[in-house]
Amino acid sequence: MSNYHIKHLEEYFQVYRKSVRNPENFWEEVAEEHFLWRKRWDNVLSWDFKKPEVKWFEGAELNITENCIDRHLRTRGDKTAILFEPNNPDEPAQHISYQQLYERVNQMANVLKSQGIEKGDRVCIYLPMIPELAIALLACARIGAIHSVVFAGFSSKALATRINDASCKMLITSDGSYRGSKTLDLKAIVDGALESCESIETVLVAERTKNKIHMKEGRDLWLQPLLDDAEVKCSAEPMKAEDPLFILYTSGSTGRPKGMVHTTAGYMVYTAYTFKNIFQYRETDVYWCTADIGWITGHSYIVYGPLANGATTVMFEGVPSYPDFSRFWEIVEKHQITHLYTAPTAIRALAKENIEYVERHDLSSLKVLGSVGEPINEEAWHWYNDNIGKKQSPIVDTWWQTETGGIMISPIPFVTPTKPTYATLPFIGIQPALMDEEGKEIKGNQVDGRLCIKFPWPSMARTIWGDHDRYRDTYFSAYENKYFTGDGAMRDEVGYYRITGRVDDVIIVSGHNLGTAPIEDAINEHPAVAESAIVGFPHDVKGNALYGYVMLKEFGETRNQDNLRKEINQQITDKVGPIAKLDKIQFVNGLPKTRSGKIMRRILRKIASKDTSNLGDTSTLLNPEVVQEIMDNAL
Ligand code: 6R9
Question: Residue ranges of the Acetyl-coenzyme A synthetase N-terminal domain (predicted)?
């Protein structure tokens, strides 16, 4: 019991040591005391990173929805499980209690069954951030179907690739989605995708926008009438610990997405335990993660982690800029949000706007702030800390990946002293290692290297759907007996980790290794700059030279651009060193971003290298339109 909720730094070190000395005992205790099992495990862990094969809680049987819903009914039946805040602020919020969630999940599960879905079948979910999305995940889990959520912003082509990769039998979608002032025709995208997807037998369509859509006879069905007729009870399928719970795609270094497979028991235990501790969640808190459920952050920290703890979790359908840039702060005040978990890209976008948008609202309910998705730069960290947390709410800078299932390196608020831009210490049970280029572990502090994990943790992905060899090659072949994250990191004098960015973003200039993140940080600290991205391009003498794409806070900045370029390079010289000065600086209106807010450096590298014949698939970008503009103005 005492292990479940860490309250001070000494306790963290004590529990950490225990979790590393005897991981099996540690995780067994957590699993035993805090979850509902149909059958106990025979063996806590077996693993071999060479194959690679990892199994947690083998022999156990459980259903994750009994842990996320049923077991709360007696004590929390009337408590809000999901608090839905619609895109339009004039539309009332919906408070879905645990009892109501139970009924709606069971009804949906019965609909899936009546449409022929069985344990092990893959169901693709392509829905906007409406309650049906969370309910659909849980309904699949209830009957043992494997969900594969595709972010409802991906193109027909991207959707079709993912449906075909997992041979999904059913697709759940909606008639449309709202994003700010826009209404998107999701069903048309689905119809386009399904022209090349033979495995889909049924499409369930939730009504949201009342768009006029085409319903294909014999394939498409409106969801609501089926739900209305469905029983509110559906017994939960007993699942084996290592049965797949879901597939979630992540992009790799090649164009083909990787379907990361997460399994049931370990994922549940780790997401629940991290949620409780990394957010220091208490019974009456109102927790809001602004991610989309289409990403791992939404799976683990909107749906499974919070619900396993009986929490109130907010689902927001809209965007931070609609109806204006005060929307986030308005929601915090309206629902008395205690925890806000968002991304650096959102923080930077909001920090660019007039501070009055923030000051208009009472943010005193906030206790903990979170950041995820990319390294948070110094300026954004301080803006978040000063203006949103009022220096009272610790920032948890949480480093993790789709592959890791849960948060791996992060401060524990009120326990670990924070440090700007540092994800700080490994979470309980996580054993990081920094590796050098020869494959040797770098010991000691004040060092940097490539970030690996030495020992299995319960929520790690077990394979890539249909391609175990690629799983091994991508994650377990670079360093013997270690999981390789693809990220670089440094460890400071007290052992705090700072993630420096993808190691593939390291650029070697005149023999010096330069990381893009510190240079971008230096540029972003210039008062006129909103955001920037650095890439390398071939140079006769230096091997590579640096090309910077810089977005200014005010488009059409009146200052002389050549002067600005000089100032930016001076800033870099001051912060990083003259070696990191940029050869070319292009001012842009926007940077090409993935849907989860990551800059697509691959495209910027090609433009900088004047190699634009094959830019690859840009359809998955958030803002494909900026690519042409950047190409037209390239230097
Ligand atoms: C959860 C998520 C994973 C990659 C990861 C790293 C970057 C995520 C970060 C961070 C620095 C943080 N990343 N969190 N870098 N500090 N707090 O984002 O998963 O979409 O798979 O991305 O994101 O480069 O390797 P995913």
Answer: 12-68
